[in-house]
Amino acid sequence: MTAGVAKFKHVREDRFRYHWIILSLLMICASVDEAASIHEISVEPIRQLLGASGTGSLYFAWVVPGIAFVAAAGILFARFLIHLPSAIRNQMLLAAGIFLSGAIGVEMLGAEHFELWGRQNQTFSLYCAAEESLELLGVLVYIRAVLAYLQQSRLELTVNFADSQRLSRAA
C-alpha cells in the first residue's frame, strides 16, 4: 500500500514523493528483517564493535544503532509528518510508538531478563510475545493510517493477486 501511494506521488511529482518511497522501502526492509531475523544475527558483531560485555537492557546490542536510526528517521520525516492531515499524522505516530515500544522497549526489558536467566523460561517467552504483539499492533495501526490516507486523498489502489488473462481463459 505504501508503495502504491509512493508511485502515485512520484507520478504527480509531489514534494513528499521521496518520503513515501523511503517509507515503502523501510516497510520492505522491516518485513525482510522480521522474516530473516537480521537484527538478531547482528547482536554479537555489534556487541563486539561496542566492546560490550553484560550490558543489561542493551544486551541485545542492535538496539543502539536502532535507536540512532529511529532518531534520524524522526528528524528526516518531521516535515513530512507535519504536512499530513492531523488525523493521519496522529495515527502514523501512534503506529510508530506502538511498534517501537515493542521492537525496542520490550526488547530492552527482555534483554535484561535474558542476560540473567537465558531464553528457556516462561518470563522470557512472555517478553517475546509482548514484543511481537506490539509490533503487529503497530503494523495494523499503520495499515489503518495508510488506508485512511488513501480514502481521504481520494486515491484508488487496485491490488491484483492473479493473472487476469489466465483467470478469464479458465472461466
Average pLDDT, all residues: 90
Helical coverage, percent range: over 70%
Approximate strand percentage: under 5%
* Low-confidence blocks of residues: none
- What is the β-strand count? 0
H/E element order: HHHHHHHH
Q: Treating each run of at least 4 consecutive H or I residues as one helix, how many helices?
A: 8
- Summarize the main sheet: none
Distance between the termini: 29 Å
* Tertiary shape: elongated
Radius of gyration: 19 Å
* Alpha-beta content class: mainly alpha
Protein topology:
Layout (H helix, E strand, L loop, with lengths): L1 H10 L5 H20 L1 H4 L1 H8 L12 H21 L2 H32 L4 H31 L11 H7 L1
Helix pairs in contact: 1-2, 5-6, 6-7
Explain this structure to me?
This protein is an all-alpha fold. The chain has eight helices and no strands. α5 (63-83) packs antiparallel against α6 and α6 (86-117) runs antiparallel to α7 (122-152). The longest helix is centred in the middle third of the chain and has 32 residues, at 86-117. 18% of the residues are buried. The model has no long low-confidence stretch (mean pLDDT 90).
